[in-house]
Amino acid sequence: IFLKYKINNIIIQKLHRFMIWSYVKDKILNKFILGYGFFSSKHMASEKLKTEVGTNYQLIPLHTHNSILQIWLELGIVGLFLFFLIIKIIFYKIFNFNQYSQKISSFAIASSLMIFLISQSSYGIWQSWWISIIFINIILYNFIFHNFKTNKD
Length: 153
Known about the structure:
- By secondary structure, the chain is mainly alpha-helical.
- Helix content is 70%, strand content 4%.
- It is built from five helices and two strands, in the order H-H-E-E-H-H-H.
- The chain has a two-stranded antiparallel ribbon.
- A hairpin with a 5-residue loop joins strand 1 (48-50) and strand 2.
- Helix 1 crosses helix 3 (67-97), helix 3 (67-97) runs antiparallel to helix 4 and helix 4 (102-119) runs antiparallel to helix 5.
- The chain starts with a helix and ends with a helix.
């Protein structure tokens, strides 16, 4: 019975995410270019969807559970462009470092990819602890890259 409950709970959670993302997509289309502004998804949380069985689901519970959708919703296509520009710069630096150490570059790519994938289904992009993890990762690899290049040269 416990396993059946857990599986049912996981399915409901995933369906709720799809509902959130569908709702967010519709909202994005309304303000495609500039979005609704920082932290606006938090204020959209008051809208609810009532299901046939009487369950009330928040259409956006605090955030979108997807960083790309949250950035697009709140900052529009302009903010999304800047987000991808930052990601491009980070990956450019990692790939550029590959000439010094392929192992360290591989770890940096894996860390970045994990952060990106987790942020596509879990956390709000503006949560301070999540931003801290991302910046700690960037600072750590920057430090490693700098020390490795200095010792190599």
